[in-house]
Write a structure and sequence with these properties.
Elements: E1 2-5, H1 12-17, E2 32-36, H2 42-49, E3 53-57, H3 63-76, E4 81-84, H4 96-105, E5 110-114, H5 125-142, E6 154-157, H6 158-163, H7 173-182, E7 187-191, H8 207-225, H9 227-254, H10 262-324
Parallel strand pairs: 1-2, 2-3, 5-7
Antiparallel strand pairs: 4-6, 5-6
Helix pairs in contact: 5-7, 5-8, 7-8, 8-9, 9-10
Length: about 325
């Protein structure tokens, strides 16, 4: 169970205390708190509340980096299932058993808590509409059916955590879904609901900023994984727009009125050339993408090798202790 935190002294204790320590099908439940350079008593509260493991960033690195730190540490601690929740206590801890059940059953690699925002009274009508549209857009980009795309209440199997490689600086939620869709990981939504939080979000200052940053992240990640599709469509758009003025010139020329419309040929030709260059850029980006996939495979293999070595070292240390006894 990992909890990324930044100045959460007021709610972290309750968040940790609501986490069930006994779950059917799970041998043990351990809590990992990742303190992202907090300036308040978050670290002290985490210790007092009974966190089993604590990691501290020396300065604030952002949610995406903090989430990744938690994933890597959870893997090092040999977690088979990693549950992520927020330190503001907006996600109900008693829903964790339901959230991880599909992973225990082997029917999902990742589960995402559905807050059912359409039913939340503390969400404004505008926010509910934007959340619905945003989740629809992410579903289209990722190819996975998730009801609440930006929910931070989610669980990952060990294999899914090894395969996820977050590179965005803003947030991990959208990128994880697009990556999971690209890597053919099984994802399920689990209805969990949500609780009202008294403080405003520390991830963004306003809804327009959130929409802009989320949109940029979605487009960047989608382009990273599907460059040929993106650049081909963009290039085709320029080519089709370029054909229009050229077609206009030909129509006028064939009707004896071509004089004085040479600018149509120039503009159309420039647009078509731009379109061709964009398509070529897409082909090059796609080839570079193959190298990125190879590097990702190497990274995944290195993670697995590192985890295997850590396990062997712990096993040998344990055997040596038993022999000493």
């Amino acid at each position: 169970m990992q909890i990324p935190c930044f100045n959460e002294e007021a709610t972290l204790k309750q968040t940790i205390q609501e986490i069930p320590r006994v779950i059917k099908g799970i041998d043990s439940v351990e809590v990992l708190v990742i303190d992202d350079g907090s300036s308040d008593r978050t670290l002290e509260v985490a210790r007092q509340a009974g966190a089993d493991h604590i990691i501290c960033h020396t300065r604030n690195k952002g949610l995406a980096a903090t989430f990744t730190t938690g994933l890597m540490e959870s893997l090092r601690l040999e977690a088979d299932i990693i549950v992520n929740t927020d330190g503001d206590n907006q996600y109900p801890g008693n829903k964790i058993p339901e959230l991880i059940q599909p992973i225990i059953e082997g029917s999902a690699d990742i589960t995402v808590g559905d807050r059912e925002t359409r039913k939340l009274q503390h969400f404004s009508k505008t926010k509910r509409i934007l959340q619905k549209l945003g989740s629809w857009g992410v579903r289209k980009l990722s190819g996975v059916e998730v009801a609440d795309a930006v929910s931070g209440f989610r669980a990952l199997s060990k294999d899914a955590a090894i395969n996820i490689n977050i590179v965005s600086k803003f947030s991990y939620t959208i990128e994880m879904l697009i990556q999971a869709g690209e890597k053919k990981l099984a994802i399920q939504s689990v209805v969990t609901g949500s609780k009202k939080t008294d403080r405003s979000s520390r991830l963004f200052k306003s809804v327009p900023q959130f929409l802009f940053l989320s949109g940029v992240t979605a487009v960047r990640v989608y382009t990273m994984y599907r460059p040929l599709r993106v650049f081909s469509k963009l290039g085709l758009f320029f080519i089709l727009v370029g054909i229009v003025p050229i077609g206009r010139f030909l129509f006028l020329y064939l009707n004896g009125d071509g004089d004085g419309h040479i600018q149509s040929i120039i503009i159309g030709s420039i647009l078509i050339v731009i379109g061709c260059f964009v398509v070529i850029a897409g082909v090059l980006a796609d080839l570079i993408g193959f190298n990125r996939k190879l590097l990702e495979q190497i990274l995944i293999l290195e993670r697995k090798r590192s985890l295997t070595m850590d396990f062997k070292e712990k096993y040998h240390d344990k055997k040596n202790e038993e022999n000493d006894d």
